[in-house]
Amino acid sequence: MHDINALKTLLNEPKEVMITTHHKPDADALGSSLGLAGYLKKKGHRVTVITPSDYPDFLNWMEGNEDVLVYSEKNDALVQRIIGESQVIFCLDFNSLSRIHEMGEYIRQAKGTKVMIDHHLQPEHFADLSFSDTNAAATAELVYDLIKEAGDADLIDTSIGECLYAGIMTDTGSFRHPSTSKNVHLIIADLLHIGVQTSNIHRLIYDSSTELRLRFLGYALKDKLVVLHEYNTAYIAITKEELKAYDSKTGDTEGLVNYALSIEGIVFAALIIDRSEAVKMSFRSVGDFSVNEFAREHFNGGGHKNAAGGMSLDSLEATIDKFERLLPLYKDQLTHASAS
Ligand code: 5GP
Ligand code: MN
Asked: Which of 23, 165, 168, 335 matches a 20 to 30 Å C-alpha distance to 196?
């Protein structure tokens, strides 16, 4: 965290601050942003959180959610103005400006000081100050550590703590991924100490499905799951019509890919969804097989070694076909990969 002194100097008097995070924010993206926003407001800064797209309803409970500005073509001019007027621009939970679509170019050209806080692999160098730790379990963990290093741990109240807890809980897969370090557990102990209601957050995020979302999960697992034992791979592909039939909302497909990975012997799982703008893909693996490399190499994406995403502008059928045709190239890795 070599830039901590520079960050402290930057923030030692009230500033116009904006915080943004990646497209389709998940709990870590939004939780780290709103947790940081809560802290910076307490320090006297004027803070605006802008997301490049909407996000799931199950994140709406976070403190500060009602003030989030969601970018759309309609408010493009307003967003450009805020970015232009911001003295400090925080970029959280992403490391390439392409991840925030239209807003990326506005931020590239902005004169404010850019601060990146992120834990994804292969960061791009667009920020003035970078807090990139690819071993961190979550961006929310990095935000917690930064607040602590700034000597402000006592400013972390339950509202900020709940946002950070949500980010760490989800990015560690509820504390089961190998990224769940001692530091993670120590932070959670601190959050429990200040009164964060952890089981309540678990319920708000994981147990808030609509009936239709659960039936969609049942349909996807029963009729759409493809298991390719030869490659220790399983995938689920979803059409636009299926999304419509189940009235699928932002966030409704989150977690689906993990079911494919939960089959014994499967080391590589994919979820391939025909969205209106492109075919979006989620990749997960256990063990040595790097889905970050796979996503980067073939699907214009990236992420972490065991969790990554990508996209394709081909049709859904062509994307599935390309995915299946790539597997033989990785047969050795997929069949000899150590699963731990
Ligand atoms: P998910 O599959 O949950 O959408 O994403 C898994 C991980 O990969 C997350 O850390 C996410 O930020 C990252 N990710 C998802 N889609 C993309 C993408 O298109 N490009 C890059 N670089 N990362 C992605
Ligand atoms: Mn994250």
From this structure: 23
